[in-house]
Amino acid sequence: MNHRKILTAAFLIALPGLAVAEPTREGPPTATEAQNDYRRHARLLMKHLYETNPAKFEVLMEMRQEQPEEFRKTIKAMLAAKKAGMADPAMRAEKEKMRELRQDFRTALEDYHAANPKEQSKIRGQLDELAEEIFDSKQQHRREKVKKMRVELKRLEAEIADRDAAREERIEEFVEKKIEATASRGL
After folding, report:
1. For the whole prediction, is pTM greater than 0.85?
2. Among 56, 89, 126, 148, whose CB has the most other CB atoms within 10 angstroms?
């Protein structure tokens, strides 16, 4: 009898908590979830830049303070470019090929250690061939990366030239924008 009372009391205590529980959502994320996801990706990107390219990180931080709209556009463009790299079928195929090569190498390595000395020499040849394929694939990936960097460098150089050409207009626009923003806040 006592167990029944305890079980009933526990159920009654837990019932209000179950009533307010939200069901799991299915489908696309809500606007808030999408915004949080964007912010998380932006923070990860900034952390990555801080660690790998401090100069670019500093430029972006300065832009964030002085030109928040330009900063947001730049971050969105960088995230889109990063996402596009993963959406690129050739890039995905290359990464999948690398994954398979590494798995084949690990399997051959396990076979090498499990084999007798006579079989090890044959498996060693397979390991060498797989290592060559992995090396060549990595080199090709690096070449593609350099090619993309050159394209980005040309784009940035053109952007700098455009900004230099419109220097006076941009400075005037910046000052006017700041004056209007501070005037509307009553500063």
Report:
1. no
2. 126
